[in-house]
Specification:
Blueprint: H1 8-30, H2 32-36, H3 43-73, H4 80-103, H5 108-131, H6 138-166, H7 172-204, H8 214-234, H9 237-263, H10 272-296, H11 302-338, H12 356-378, H13 382-406
Helix pairs in contact: 1-3, 1-4, 1-13, 3-4, 3-5, 3-7, 3-11, 4-5, 5-6, 6-7, 6-8, 7-8, 7-9, 7-11, 8-9, 9-10, 10-11, 11-12, 12-13
The chain binds protoporphyrin IX containing FE.
The site of protoporphyrin IX containing FE has 25 residues, from helix 3, helix 5, helix 6 and helix 7.
């Protein structure tokens, strides 16, 4: 059975995503005034946020899934041609939607409709592909859970865009909270959990680990998400604090498994990209702890929560993606270009494709920028926010060029 995907499919998603990543940072750079004021619900920030979350993070997740699902689930992608059509529909939809959110939010719903079609095509592709898997495992549950959250996120997003256009729904803020939670914590977090069970052992060469926390992590995290959504709709602070506690414990269970996998690894010295993805796990857990404490002591101020969400998106989701992507692209490219030539002619080694010194500089810059941004925004130092966002934009561009350089080795 042929399970490998035509490399052009994941690569199209990845290249589009990298461009969107740079565009998002440029937009946020020009909106740094609104960032300082903690006003995230503005057209410019909606545009930057959706270029980052839909254009970059979602497109990378889709591209990575086209590559990883066949390998991890041992089943070929249902239809690669459908995959290419899905890529074009989603890319056009995301670009149109994000731009409209920034320049004409009252008609963004039309771009949003195209995004919804693209995402539904993706979900259909994945559901058919995964349903062909012979033996279900814990990863199947994480990925199916993530896809279910993704479905609800885009429905909620569509309702928000609809409401901005026609204004007929009363619960706008409740839908927004549900949308952000399901998108950021449901879809991305469950997906990263699931794929980490494959990628962490693979990149650290670990064997004989138990994964005994995987099921509790999945169940607890999902129960936590449901409690949080309930609390939004019932407007109940107590349930919300309990919800934050439960998702924190779910994350902790996942963390226990990663700890065990790493303890049983053969490869003692981790490379920079992978270490960065592991750092993201610590940041994700840390933010869950802070979210619980902030909810417990009753801080409901908008700016604090906005910056916590920002940190979660950058420090957990984006950092995980940046670390893993820098590992996946060389493997993808090496396999495509050189795997068949091994033994017949001299081929570059995988490590020749990776520049560890550059990675160290880039990842350090990412950490400095994100920390600098949050601290200077909380201290209301406008000029520093501007400088750190500018530096983040340059770092993003350099990272993008570094990934593209791999394709020229
Ligand atoms: C996984 C995908 C998505 C994620 C993670 C996501 C996340 C977010 C976040 C974090 C915000 C708050 C941004 C801010 O306040 O500046 C937001 C707002 C919004 N999202 Fe999404 N989004 C996603 C997909 C979508 C889609 C597909 C649509 C439309 C079809 C959509 C429509 C909206 C709208 C209209 C708002 C602004 C609502 C308001 O502030 O009143 N989103 N989204």
């Amino acid at each position: 059975m042929k399970i490998d995907t035509n490399i052009k499919l994941p690569l199209s998603f990845i290249l589009f995503a990298l461009i969107a990543f740079v565009v998002a940072q440029i937009i946020l750079f020009f909106s740094s005034g609104e960032l300082v004021a903690g006003q995230f619900r503005q057209p410019d920030i909606w545009m930057g946020a959706h270029f980052l979350l839909l254009g970059f993070a979602v497109m990378i997740a889709m591209g990575a899934m086209y590559q990883l699902v066949p390998v991890a689930f041992l089943t070929p992608i249902w239809s690669q041609t459908f995959g290419f059509i899905q890529f074009f529909v989603t890319a056009i939809g995301v670009t149109a939607f994000a731009i409209l959110l920034g320049v004409k939010p009252n008609i963004a719903v039309y771009g949003g409709a195209v995004v919804v079609i693209g995402v539904l095509m993706f979900i259909l592709q994945m559901v058919i592909t995964i349903s062909k898997q012979e033996k279900r495992n814990m990863m199947t549950y994480f990925v199916m859970g993530a896809i279910s959250c993704f479905f609800l996120t885009i429905i909620a997003g569509f309702l928000l865009a609809w409401n901005i256009a026609f204004g007929s729904i009363n619960q706008h803020n409740t839908i927004l909270a549900t949308h952000v939670l399901l998108g950021v914590a449901g879809w991305f977090t469950l997906l990263i959990f699931g794929f980490s069970y494959k990628l962490v052992p693979m990149f650290s060469l670990s064997h004989g680990f138990s994964m005994k926390w995987a099921k509790p992590a999945f169940v607890t995290y999902v129960v936590g998400l449901i409690s949080l959504i309930l609390s939004f709709w019932l407007n109940n602070g107590l349930i919300q604090t309990i919800g934050w506690f439960i998702v924190m414990i779910g994350f902790l269970f996942f963390f226990f498994d990663v700890k065990e996998i790493l303890a049983k690894r053969v490869k003692k010295k981790l490379d920079k990209s992978f270490a960065f993805a592991i750092l993201a796990i610590f940041i994700g857990l840390g933010i869950h702890v802070v979210a619980f404490v902030v909810s417990l002591i009753g801080i409901s101020d908008q700016a604090t929560w906005s910056w916590l969400i920002f940190l979660y998106i950058m420090g957990w989701i984006v950092f995980s993606i940046l670390g893993y992507l820098n590992k996946i692209v060389p493997v993808l490219w090496w396999t495509y270009k050189y795997a068949d030539h091994v033994g017949k002619e001299k081929v570059p080694l995988l490590k020749d494709m990776i520049n560890e010194r550059w990675n160290l500089i880039l990842f350090s810059l990412f950490i400095i920028c994100v920390l600098g941004l949050v601290l200077s925004a909380l201290l209301q130092l406008g000029i520093l926010v501007w400088i750190f966002q500018g530096l983040l934009t340059i770092t993003t561009l350099l990272y993008t060029l570094a990934v593209i350089r791999i394709l020229f080795v």
